[in-house]
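Backbone-to-sequence.
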């Protein structure tokens, strides 16, 4: 049984088994509320409280969400993961149960709604920038303990060139070779990041969500109401999440019209935040996003998306 075959009836049956034997537990209103590349999510009501359960093959993503819950603070409303474990029975995979948040996905907002939520969005990013990494933490992707494994920001950026047989996107390099255009753009991106390395943040290390425009940030009443799915999160340059919104903005006309990067610079000025080598760093982030998604779409074999990413990356390569 794969992730996509898990339906509401199966999710409900699992939840009733899971909570069996606990005093006065009622599970109702089980419904599919979302799905992504690596998991499927169902909302349900547990004794009157709204919750969600997700099913997926990658327990590390669920453990990251549990750790991220410990980082919740004013301006950063991260749902609390209450349980992570193995499903078993017919589905060989993992589950994560967490509190549920409601709202509209950030990328689906109208222009007027974006204008209203902008202070809350920048407040969320400010809150993330204030988080102190765990002791002994490096850069890059982190696991259940929140500790990044790369020695520095530059090593994280160039690691995009690796094709580890244990990685979830293994085999991407051979598939990318089927597109000479994508292969050439990938190589140019690596070369440009090497040139821009001198402007990389020296000693700075901040929490980066890593996937802000994929139904992972919800908005309600003009405020960020929930930030979840931290599977792509890294420790690195705080400009990276802004770069992600900027990179994908042409796919969302309302975001594109906002000129989010210019608004971010305006916000930095308003709060008195001095970002050294600002332009070089954002460009480096944009290039990394491009080459990383060449890699990802090559893995998927999505040639249309691959070409679109190459088109978007090209202006940043200089």
């Amino acid at each position: 049984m794969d992730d996509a075959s898990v339906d509401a009836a199966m999710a409900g049956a699992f939840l009733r088994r899971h909570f069996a034997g606990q005093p006065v537990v009622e599970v109702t209103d089980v419904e599919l509320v979302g799905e992504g590349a690596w998991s499927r999510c169902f909302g349900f009501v547990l004794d009157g409280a709204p919750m969600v359960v997700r099913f997926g093959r990658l327990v590390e993503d669920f453990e990251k969400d549990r750790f991220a819950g410990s980082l919740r603070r004013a301006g950063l409303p991260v749902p609390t993961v209450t349980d992570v474990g193995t499903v078993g029975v017919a589905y060989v995979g993992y589950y994560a149960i967490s509190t549920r948040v409601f709202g509209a996905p950030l990328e689906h907002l109208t222009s007027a709604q974006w204008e209203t939520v902008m202070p809350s969005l920048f407040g969320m990013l400010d809150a993330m920038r204030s988080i102190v990494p765990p002791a002994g933490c490096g850069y890059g992707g982190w696991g259940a303990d929140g500790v990044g494994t790369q020695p520095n920001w530059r090593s994280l950026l160039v690691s995009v060139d690796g094709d580890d047989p244990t990685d979830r996107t293994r085999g991407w390099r051979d598939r990318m070779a089927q597109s000479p255009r994508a292969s050439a753009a990938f190589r140019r991106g690596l070369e440009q990041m090497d040139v821009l390395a001198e402007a990389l943040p020296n000693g700075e290390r901040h929490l980066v969500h890593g996937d802000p425009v994929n139904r992972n940030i919800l908005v309600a009443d003009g405020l960020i109401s929930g930030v979840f799915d931290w599977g792509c999160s890294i420790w690195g340059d705080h400009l990276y999440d802004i770069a992600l919104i900027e990179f994908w903005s042409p796919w969302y006309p309302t975001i594109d019209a906002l000129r989010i990067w210019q608004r971010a610079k305006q916000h930095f000025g308003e709060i008195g935040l001095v970002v050294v080598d600002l332009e070089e760093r954002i460009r480096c982030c944009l290039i990394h996003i491009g080459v990383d998604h060449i890699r990802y779409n090559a893995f998927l074999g999505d040639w249309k998306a691959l070409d679109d990413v190459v088109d978007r990356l090209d202006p940043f390569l200089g």
